[in-house]
Amino acid sequence: KTIIDAHNISKTYNKKMVPVKALQDVHLHIEEGEFIALVGPSGSGKSTLLNMIGGLDEPTSGKVIVDGVEITKLSENRLIDFRLKNIGFVFQSFNLIPVLTSKENVGFVLQLQKMPKKEREERVMELLQQVGLEDKVKSKPGELSGGQQQRVAVARALASKPKIILADEPTANLDSKSAENLMDIMAKLNKEEKITFLFSTHDQRVIKKARRVITLVDGKVDSDVQQTSS
Ligand code: ADP
Ligand code: ADP
Description:
Pfam families: ABC_tran
Domain ABC transporter: 4-230
GO molecular function, one term: ATP binding
Protein name: ABC transporter ATP-binding protein
Mean pLDDT: 95
Keywords: ATP-binding, Nucleotide-binding, Transport
Low-confidence stretches: none
Bound molecules: adenosine-5'-diphosphate
């Protein structure tokens, strides 16, 4: 089953009247349950592509279809709603709210969705267990290591049971042990919960874990290969 379909995606940024072609005519077809690394030199368009697929920004031309919905046609309000329910995001800088505990950072999204308190608490505990942080429920981001913070971010991304998780260099700020731990958690979620993962990375060890590697160069797909993961 197709989960993401990108047709002729182009994105041009206008910086001080100078156009920058960040993506040029990108086609992408992703099946449910894939585990994909997006690679390429800095400035090749990885973040831009993730932003287009996740509906965080609009392409200049082309269309993006996620789980059968053409998100490039949705109104801003519908897009926000669609994103909340269907797509989880993980960023290299964790993006947690510093004054909130792990539990609160993860529960925040569910609160926005008006999930009743008891149900919410159960779900949050289950999520923190999935990422191995049941003993850090009451810690704030500043009291956690980078690896632990990123695991809170993954738990938060999972809160609304998305079918897709998009991660922009999730291991960039982690030491190699934490990076490996994070990848193992993501691989497990991919296998057991059938969540589709698309993550950009520069890390060879992370790339090795992917089953498919898409390489961008100058805003174009340069290669797209299946590999036997290790
Ligand atoms: P990558 O993630 O592969 O490093 P990006 O998608 O961040 O690549 O950037 C692709 C190109 O688009 C780069 O030339 C970058 O400078 C440019 N770019 C990205 N975002 C913006 C923006 N918001 N405004 C102007 N230029 C941008
Ligand atoms: P990455 O580490 O993924 O390459 P960057 O550090 O290039 O990301 O960019 C981080 C964010 O800033 C992205 O969301 C991107 O869209 C934006 N950005 C990148 N390049 C530019 C630019 N030249 N002008 C404005 N915004 C940019």
